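Same chain as my last thread, 417 residues:
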Amino acid sequence: MIEPILHLRRELHQYPELSAKEADTAGRIVRFFTPLAADSIVEGLGGHGVAVVFGGKVAGPTILLRCELDAVPIQELSQRDYRSTRAGISHSCGHDGHMAILAAVGAELAASPPERGRVVLLFQPAEETGCGAAAVLHDPRFAAIRPDFAFALHNLPGVPLGQVIVRRGAFNCASRGMTIRLSGSTAHAAQPESGRSPARAMCRLIQGLSLLPPGIAEQGETAFATVVGAELGKKAFGTAPGEAEIWCTLRSESDATMARLVRFSEQLAAEHAGEDGLTVSIACQDVFAATINSESAVQRVREVVAPETLTFAERPFRWSEDFGLITASCEGALIGIGAGEELPALHNPQYDFPEALIPPAKALFLRLIQRCLTGGGSCEAMKNKGPSLPRFPLAVWMAIALLVIDDTSQLSLPGLI
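reply #2:
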């Protein structure tokens, strides 16, 4: 089955699509799975999402494995035969490889379905903007495939091929993009005092965002703001500016710290705007919760990975993932897996997913399925112990999903968080 998987991966690589525009990508996934006789294929889930379900003969837990459909707005610099055909768009994060891994898992399940429980393969839209998981959770059809356990992986360049990295608790950071708009009034450049320029407030605010006060983060916790850009006025030498925008990314290891970081940024903006008689408006996009790995899910990973190929990360990764909304609703874990030490970094225009990673990643997922669904009830025992972090009831995580959708609706520009 390896040749069809490689063909699919390279086809997906050639025709990448940005977040919320993955219709063709979803269609390719559906066409791949149609002849494999899955129990059901749910299309259009949370946008262009696809869920492929394989059920066993005996009722049991549901395990969900998730990958991502979307690409990133990066021009690929490659001469490969299967290089991206779409200008300014590429799979420079490896989501084409993640889809190929789940396709390989699906091919195995079609040949040998689980005896007990269900496996849901979720091809999720819009991960890069943080909107996809929320939209999937908000889709009424998700309730029918709601999992007891959920796992996802992300390839990690710079790490030996196939090396598995996990962490209990926070695996990667919460983040959000924040646009701060300062509004005053223009004036003739010869009489700037007759207007209200946001120039000084903008400069003070840029400096203040980089200097977090004590108490924002817990001792030793990562939390910071990165100013990624700013705009002041226009290139009109006869006019003093009346408008300015600052674009920054907020990042923290926990959602509680993120809430404090947001409040601090809002208060700081209001303070500096008020000093110069300006008004301020703030909008957020690309909102990601921290991804929290449950104790029981990490234990399942530990049980199926050889000790010499398993590493426990000391700190959460700084990058963000919207899988955190899914792990908030069930026992789950995001897993890192080495893509090779000599590979370019993620989001590098030279990056290309290493196809040698497909077999070991597929094997990892298959072992997790076996452990959770037919592992002598060990997963049920872990569930009865209770998770190390609180699980949210359906109504709560649906509310979280709605909040994320609402928070990201104010701006439509794609971002890289």
